[in-house]
Design goal:
328 residues; single chain; seven-stranded mixed sheet; 11 strands; Rossmann fold; binds 6-O-phosphono-beta-D-fructofuranose
Length: 328
């Protein structure tokens, strides 16, 4: 049975990601196309608790496709994890007569959405939006493609100076629990080694790889370190390597939050548009507690439960092996 949904709100939560604006635009315009009243919640779940809910129309989302960040703003809201916070949020939704929510974010966002929806029977659909690409059920998350392109642009520049000075650079990229950015950017920039949170690489193995390169006259080397690597961040690993391998002058660069900004790539704009469109259609078809994701270039639904609790290894082992072979 199709639900009687009249008023739909959209929010972005957790770390911002390029492409979120394309998602917001698609949600608002698809809802309006279907004759629904559309709302935007500012600052994610915090905006629900503080009743920062604004009506939106087709023109509210004009000229935002190319913009990084999120026009609705975002937050990491601890209060929404409490019963009191959720109850206040629900009262505000009721006061605004909102029947359904589209949430754009990562695993923290979906965990909140799932709990909220189970507790109060609010209809929710999630759009995966995080540069980390760490959600099951979508081959790609919004922002991941742009972030990789931002990272390789930075690494290319570092390679110029590394090569000019015959230096070894350790470059730290984002991904507390996910090595997706590190792996893909490492392949695309020809990094000599890639250290991931999901795979243990010993300092000994790293040094032997670097020694091998030095003995075959590599003038510079680049090691990509995902921030969640077990040995610690790039500074810590660089220190351990430097103590035992002094062939190169060593430098460290932490790319940090610049990876989250910038104009979204065409891929992220199209992905945001497809997932936003699909999210509203899913709600209007009676779906709830589902994530819309891209699988094999088709938009598919995955339950929030499955998206959150399936811990398959998303990194392709063969790519890691290939990266190692191609960087000899
Ligand atoms: O989840 C996206 C992400 O950018 C992670 O890669 C990173 O560990 C984290 O957010 C940083 O969060 P914050 O901006 O709150 O410091």
């Amino acid at each position: 049975m199709k639900p009687n949904i009249k008023n739909i709100a959209v929010l972005t939560s957790g770390g911002d990601a390029p492409g979120m604006n394309a998602g917001i635009r698609a949600v608002i315009r698809t809802g309006i196309f279907h004759g629904r009243n559309m709302f935007g919640v500012q600052q994610g779940y915090r905006g629900l608790i503080e009743n920062n809910i604004i009506p939106m129309n087709a023109r509210s989302v004009s000229n935002i496709l190319h913009m990084g960040g999120t026009i609705l703003k975002t937050a990491r809201c601890l209060e929404f994890k409490t019963d009191e916070g959720m109850e206040t949020a629900y009262r505000n939704l009721q006061a605004n007569d909102i029947d359904a929510l589209v949430v754009i974010g990562g695993d923290g966002t979906f965990t909140g959405a799932k709990r909220f929806s189970e507790k109060f029977d609010v209809k929710v659909i999630g759009i995966p939006g995080t540069i980390d690409n760490d959600l099951y059920g979508s081959d790609f998350t919004l922002g991941y493609d742009t972030a990789i392109n931002t990272v390789i642009e930075a690494i290319d520049k570092i390679r110029d100076t590394a090569d000019s000075h015959d230096r070894l650079f350790f470059i730290e990229v984002m991904g507390r629990d996910s090595g997706c950015i590190a792996l893909r950017s490492g392949i695309a920039s020809g990094a000599e080694a890639i250290l991931l949170p999901e795979k243990f690489t010993s300092v000994e193995d790293l040094i032997s790889k670097l020694e091998c390169g030095a003995s075959t006259k590599k003038s510079s080397s680049i090691v990509i370190v995902a921030e969640g690597h077990k040995h610690g961040g790039a500074y810590e690993i660089a220190k351990q390597v430097e103590e035992r391998f002094d062939h190169y002058d060593t430098k460290v660069t932490i790319l940090g939050h610049l990876q989250r900004g910038g104009s979204p790539s065409s891929f992220d704009r199209i992905l945001g548009s497809r997932l936003g469109f699909a999210a509203v259609n899913a709600l209007l078809n009676g779906e709830t507690r589902q994530m819309v994701g891209l699988r094999g270039n088709e938009v598919k639904l995955t339950s929030l439960d499955e998206a959150l609790n399936t811990h398959t290894f998303k990194l392709e082992d063969d790519l890691l092996e290939m990266a190692s072979v191609l960087s000899i």
